[in-house]
Design a protein that fits this description.
By secondary structure, this protein is mostly helical. The protein has helices at about 40-70, 80-90, 100-105, 110-145, 155-175, 185-200, 205-215, 220-230, 235-240, 245-250, 250-255, 275-280, 295-305, 310-315, 315-330, 340-345, 365, 370-375, 380-425, 435-455, 465-470, 480-495, 500-525, 525-530, 535-550, 560-570, 575-580, 585-605, 605-615, 615-620, 625-630, and strands at about 355, 360. α1 (about 40-70) runs antiparallel to α4 (about 110-145) and α23 runs antiparallel to α28 (about 585-605). About 45% of the residues are buried.
Length: about 650
Amino acid sequence: AAEPPGRPRFGWRSPLSYRAKPDPARSHLLPPSMSIGHFDASHSAEALSILEDEGQSLLGRAHKARRELVEFAFAPLLPDKVARKLVERFPEGALREGVVGFDSFARSGEAVLGAFGDWYSLLVHAAEWRELSLQLLASLSRELGALNFELSPLAVGGYLELACQHARLFLLLGSVLAGPDSKGRLAAAAYCRMHQLVRLSEPPGWLDVSRFIVEFERPLSRLQADFTSRVRLRVADALVPLSPQLAAASDPAYLRSEAVLSPLCPPPKLPGSAAAAAAAAVPGGSGSLRSGRPSEERSSEERDVAHEPPPLLAHLGRVRLWAVYGFLLCPEELSQPGAVELLVAVLRGMYVLPVYADYSILPHTEFEAEAKVVARWIAKKEDAKRFPGLIRESRLAAFRHAPAARASARASLCTKLSLLLSHALDSPTSLASRLPTLVATLQLTRAEVEWWVSHAGAAPKEVPLREREALDRSLFDPATVQALLRYACLLRRLVLREAPVVASSAGTRLSVARLHVLEELLSQLPREKAALPPRAELLLSELPVHLAAAAAPDAQLQGLRLNVLRLVYELSAAPCAALLRRAEALRQLLPELHRLSLLSSAIDQPQRLVDEACDLSPLFASEAKFMQAVYAGALSARPSDCVA
C-alpha cells in the first residue's frame, strides 16, 4: 500500500530483505579508481592505507559514542513507553501517535536529532567501512601468495592488522547494540522516527543502518559469519610458521639478554627464523649479497642492518593479537596443522583480550563452544575432543604465570629504554641508524603497558577462587609502568627535538647507502625484472629516483612510501610466488623495501613515526583503569622499584 503523504510510516521497508548492489558512488573513502569489489595489487595497497586510517578514526569515535550513550539520560527526551515501543518494534514497527508520551517525544524534535545525530552518522560510516573492509580483505586473501611475515612484514602485517581492526571496531559497536535494552538501538530508532516527524523522510542510509543493527545484536557471531563466507582469513598460513620464534621471543630470558634491543650490538637470532638459517648456512653469518664497493662502506651498511631487531620482535604485541583475533574471526583455521598449538601458546600469555581503551573481552570464554561447534572448527576428532581441555588449561596457566612473565618483561624494557636514551643523548646522529631498534622498543613498551592496563584487577570467574586469592598483587605494581611511560616520553621528545639532525642523517642514508644497496639488488635481477608484472617493473625502475631525491631539503616522501607499499603487494601477490622462490635478490628486496619505508618516515614525519610506535592515547580515556592506576602512589615510589 502507498504511504500517506506527509506521514511516512517508521520502518515500512524491511531492511532484512534489503540487498543493495555494490555502488561505487556510495564510498567517499576511496578514490574513484578503486571501485567497490575491484582491487588489484597496487590499488589494494592504497585502499589498505586509507581504510586503516579511517578505521582508527572510527574506533575513536565509537569509543566516545559508547561512553556518551552509557552515561546519557534518555528519560527527559524519551518517555518510558515511547522508548519501550521503539525498541520492541525495531526495525519493522511504527511508533503510533496514540502511545503514551508520544506528544512529549514529538515536542523534543531538534533535541533528539541533536543528541543522536553523531551516533547515527557513526553507524552510517561504520556500515560503509565494513563493506569496503570485507571486500578488500577478501581480495587480499585471494591475491597474496605465500604469507611470509619475515620476508614481507608490510604486506602480511597490513593484511592482518586490517582484520584485527575490523574485529575490534565491530565488537566495540556491538557492545552498544547487543541486548534487548540496547541504548545504541534505542538512540538510532529514536533518531529515525524523529527524522520522519521533523524532516518528513527517513534519514539517509537508514536501510543499511537498521540491517546493520539487527545483524550485530550478536557481534562475534556476525563477524564469524562474514569472515567464513566472504573473507576466509589466512591467519594460520601467516602465523603458524612463526610459532618457534614466538615462543622464543615470549621467553623473559630472551628479553633480558643484553644484546636484545641494544644500540651497541646486534641481537641474537630467533630460533627458526630465516635469519638464523642464513647465518648457519653462510660462512661469516651475514648471508647478504657481496658487491664491488669498498669494504668499509659495505661493512657499515651491513652492521646497521645487523643491528635491526627481528621483524617478529618489533611486532610481538600485535602478532599475539593477530593470532587471537584471527582465530576468533575464522575459527575454521584451527583445522590447519599447528594452529591449535599456536593459539594455546598465545592464550597462555593473556586472560583478557583488549578491544579498545577500557573495553575488553575474555578470549578463553569466546573459544568455549559446544562440542558440535568445535567439531565444525576442527576436522580431526581427536584434536576437537582435546580442544576444550586445552583452552581451560591455558586460562589457568595464563592466570598463574603470565603476570610474573610480563612483570619481568616490563622491568627489562625499562633497562632497554634507559640504554637507548643514554646512547641517543650521547650521539643524536645515531638515531637514524638505530631507528628500527628504537621503534621496536617503543612498540613493545606500548604492548606491555596495554597488557598491564587490561589485566590489572581482572580475574575471570572461571578461575578458581583459591587461585584468585593466591595471585601476587605486587606483580601489577605501577612503578615499572610509570618508568616505561617516562622513558617513552623522553625518547619521543628527543626524536622531535633532534628531528632536523635525524632527517639529515636518514636522507643521506637513503640517497647514498640504501640507494647503493637497492641498485646492487636490482643489478642481480635482469631476468626476473622482465618476468615481473608491468606495474611492478615500473615501480622498481622509479624507486632509485625517489631515493636520490630523499636528501633534498624539505623532502616529502609520502609518494615514496605509497610506491613502496604498492611494490610490496605486487611482489607478494601470487603471480610472483615462483619468482620469489628462485631469486635470492628478490627475497632480499622485500625486507629492504620495509627498511626504506621506515627510514623515509624519519625524514618528513618523525612525529607520526614515534606517535604510532608508542601511542597510548586510547588508554588515557579511561581514568579508572589507567590514569588513577598508573599514577597511584607515584610520589612514594622509589627509583629501585622501576628496575629489575
